[in-house]
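I am still getting used to backbone structure tokens and would like to learn alongside you. Label the sequence line and the structure token line clearly, so we can match residues to local backbone shapes. Go ahead whenever you are ready, and we will take it from there:
>
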Amino acid sequence: MSKLQCDVVRDLLPLYYDNVCSTATKREIEAHIATCSDCKMMLEKLKDQEYLSIEIIEKNKLEGNELKSIAGFWNQSKTRAFDKALLVAASVFSLLILVYLGLTQWNIVNVPTEVIRITDISQLRDGKIVYQVKMTDGFNVNQINYKVNSDGDVYMVPVRPLIKSKQYYHIGLANMYDFVDLDQIKANQGVGIRAVYYGSREKPILIWKKGTELPIASDTVEALFQFD
């Protein structure tokens, strides 16, 4: 029979279990629990509690790591979503800019012949053909495209963007005196000039054709083209 009582043994069991008691005390405790089922059960409970504690700690670690992984994945997802949204926004903005430029800057629409008025066709002293052009719809012309076919027909085609503008109408290509230099066109194209038209090929306005005698330009018109 052990000398130690159950109350004392139970107080010492944690020290025994942690192996921090003296050798003599350890022998006494082992002798006691060899004959006392209650104290032996208390020792088993200590072992179970430690196992559960370790298990809980590991479980908590695992759950913590899982939460960290989820948080990391969520942060990465948010970053990817933000980057994607930024890319989409930049693409949409670029597209809008291109659409705006296309509608307001790209000269892709021929001016209809119905709104073109050609008057005061004459010839300058240096041989150039001069004429007055006006767009009766009041909208500006951004560009004149020159086209010469193999027969020597010259087409001066006024073009605009899809969205028309009245800005600079009174001083721009839509309302002005202009000239055609037949000698320069012949030198550039390598063909003799047969006729000069203003407007698209579908329905052009004839300005001059070979054999036509034009009146001499007035002094006022002549003065418009004196650049010296």
Observations:
- The chain has two domains: 6-73, 109-224.
